[in-house]
Specification:
The protein has 453 residues and is α/β, with parallel strands linked by helices. Helices cover 46% and strands 19% of the residues. Among the domains are: 94 residues, Nucleic acid-binding proteins (OB fold (Dihydrolipoamide Acetyltransferase, E2P), Beta Barrel); 156 residues, Rossmann fold, CATH 3.40.50.2300; 56 residues, no CATH class. The protein contains twelve helices and 13 strands. Helix 4 packs parallel to helix 8. The termini are far apart.
Length: 453
């Protein structure tokens, strides 16, 4: 059944909508009817959820509307909004169907009325950066152990109380000189410059803190003054800026030698805690005591060597005997401890080795079977080779020249030892050597018969 929301003939339709269907239809209608647009108002009931989403109400003098900004969009905002801030938001009109309340789903947020101020801030920042006023090489190092700290701020500012509290807690021994100046208003920038110049002229402090609490860009605008920025850059004293909250940035922050996220952090940056100083002194004292002890021991050894030259042989022998006894006792104790450690180590190693020894029963059984099989194979192979050897020996005996000679044959050789095979190769009167089966003959040829077998 089609239950599309009908705005014209709602009273005539016979379909009955549930509350959820009604809210869903109204939500679609709102999203289709309103384009993404910018809305200006004041934040109230600001609630940052643990998930990172922001929930708040945007209001003016006559009306209010709920708004939500999800974590992915909120992380791109360059500041942390608070209740009472005037902002401009860009988003879509939606309906929170669970309660039937319409709301704005925020995609972007910026402080209201910051267009021209922000453009001036960006232009001045680019100008001073191009001149090299922000270069790290131009920054002055902070003194490690300042004698006195100067504070440029308003006497009524909460930032002054924060700085004094932090310094009193961390370094109560440190002197503090306050150079009062307005931190907000038309004359604030001039008063800040005069206070900084006074600190440089009097040279009674080692570092200057330029601080004030958080606020809107209009509240902090005096710290974006070009003249103040140039005075900070040319200051003889190192300057630490602690203006606003961690997300607030001013031109003074970029020009200062060190930028602190808060006034309290600025105070903590310029001083070493009293506890750290005491710990350092204690460490140096211990080091001095150790060095003195070592020197005294060396001198005592020299004294002992000098004294040993004037004492009697008996006293020297007694001293050496006592020293030898002490060394013997220490050696015995050390040997005993070393032996015990080695025994314990050997015992542990033996236990580990025992645990890692393999079970040899099965491999030994396999080895015994293999040994028996190898012996049987060797015996079979020996019998086979003996039989082959006997056959070869019989063949050799049958083919042996001595066996042939025993059957009535003879070997005839010339006087030079060459075997005679052809009668026509010999001459009458030549001497021949005849080898028989037993003994031999020396004969002379009387005649030669050719061609007879």
């Amino acid at each position: 059944m089609n239950k599309e929301f009908q705005t014209e003939n709602l009273g005539q339709t016979r379909d009955i909508l549930s509350v959820s269907e009604l809210n869903r239809a109204v939500s679609r209608l709102l999203e289709q009817s309103f384009d993404v647009s910018w809305v200006r108002g004041e934040i109230s009931n600001f609630t940052p959820a643990a998930s990172g989403h922001w929930y708040f109400t945007l209001k003016d003098d006559a009306a209010s509307v709920r708004a939500v900004m999800f974590r992915g969009r909120a992380s791109a905002v360059g500041f942390s909004p608070r209740s009472g801030d005037s902002v401009e938001i860009r988003g879509r009109v939606t309906l929170y169907e669970a309660r039937g309340e319409y709301q704005i789903q925020v995609d972007q947020m910026r402080r209201a009325g910051l267009g021209s101020l922000f453009e001036a801030f960006v232009a001045l920042k680019a100008k001073l950066e191009a001149e090299g006023l922000f270069d790290p090489e131009q920054k002055r190092p902070l003194p490690l152990y300042p004698r006195a700290v100067g504070v440029v701020t308003s006497l009524a500012a909460a930032a002054l109380r924060d700085v004094l509290t932090a310094l009193a807690r961390r370094a109560p021994h440190l002197s503090v000189v306050i150079y009062p100046a307005a931190v907000q208003g038309a004359d604030a920038a001039l008063q800040l410059r005069q206070a900084l110049a006074q600190a440089n002229d009097r040279q009674e402090v080692d570092v200057v803190l330029l601080v004030r609490g958080g606020g809107s860009i209009e509240d902090l605008w005096s710290f974006n003054d070009e003249g103040l920025a140039r005075d900070i850059a040319s200051s003889l004293l190192p300057v630490v800026s602690g203006v606003g909250h961690e997300t607030d940035f001013t031109i003074a922050d970029f020009v200062a030698d060190v930028r602190a996220p808060t006034p309290t952090a600025a105070a903590e940056l310029v001083c070493v805690t009293r506890a750290s100083l005491l710990a350092g002194i204690e460490s140096l004292s211990s080091q001095l005591n150790r060095e003195m002890q070592r020197k005294l021991e060396r001198l005592a050894q020299r004294l002992d060597r000098a004294a040993s030259g004037v004492v009697s042989p008996g006293e020297r022998l007694l001293h050496q005997t006592e020293r030898l006894s002490g060394l013997k006792f220490r050696l015995q104790a050390a040997w005993q401890q070393s032996t015990q450690r080695r025994q314990a180590s050997a015992s542990r190693a033996q236990d580990r080795l025992q645990m890692q020894l393999p079970d040899l029963a099965l491999p030994l059984a396999r080895l015994a079977r293999a040994s028996r099989a190898m012996i049987a194979a060797q015996q079979r192979q020996g019998l086979s080779r003996a039989a082959k050897l006997a056959g070869v020996q019989a063949q050799l005996r049958a083919l042996s020249p001595s066996h042939t000679l025993a059957r009535g044959y003879a070997i005839v050789r010339t006087g030079q030892g060459a075997i005679v095979r052809r009668a026509d190769s010999l001459k009458v009167g030549a001497q021949l050597d005849v080898t028989l089966s037993e003994g031999g003959l020396a004969v002379q040829i009387e005649s030669i018969r050719k061609g007879e077998a």
